[in-house]
Amino acid sequence: MRAYSLELRQRIVNTYTAGNISIRKVAELFQVSKSTVQALLKQHREQGTLFPLPATGGRTSHLQGQENLLRSMVTNHPDYTLSEYCEDWADQTGEWVSQSTMCRWLQQQGLTLKKTT
Question: Residue 79 and residue 114: Cα distance in Å, rounded?
C-alpha cells in the first residue's frame, strides 16, 4: 500500500490542531483510521515532519547468506527445473524452500537460464 500524500498528512494534522475536534472525528472526516491520525500526530510532535517513513521489517529469505552454495548448484546443474533446485537444496542443507522462493532468489541474482529439453 502506498503512503498517504504529504498534503493529506498536513491537512489531517492541521485540522486536529486547529480546533476542538476529536481524533475519531478527524479520522471520519478524512476517511482514514484512528490509528493513522494518532501516528501522524505523534510523528509531527516527535520528529517535526510528516514525510512518510521508510518501510521496515519483512522477512529475510532462507537462502540469505548461502549465495556461494546456490551459485555452485546453478553452475553444476544449469538445466535443473525449480523443483529440482529445491530438492537439491533440501538434500544439501536439510532445509526445504518453496519454488517461488527459489525463483525469486534466482531472478534477483540474475541466474535465470533457458532450459534445454
Answer: 8
**Residue 62: alpha-carbon gap to chain centroid:** 15
Q: Which three cell numbers stand for residue 30?
A: 478524512
Backbone angles phi, psi at 73, to 5 degrees: -60, -45
Helix 23-30 crosses helix 6-18 at what angle (to 10 degrees)? 140
Q: pLDDT tens, 13-62?
A: 999 999 889 999 999 999 999 999 999 999 999 999 999 988 887 888 77
Phi, psi of 25 (to 5 degrees): -70, -40
Per DSSP, the three-state class of 13 is helix
How far apart are alpha carbons 26 and 6 in whole angstroms?
16
Nearest C-alpha neighbor of 26 from the set 8, 43, 44 = 8
Domain ranges of the chain: 6-47, 67-109
How far apart, in whole angstroms, are the C-alpha atoms of residue 67 and residue 12? 46
Q: How far apart are CA 101 and CA 88, in angstroms?
A: 14
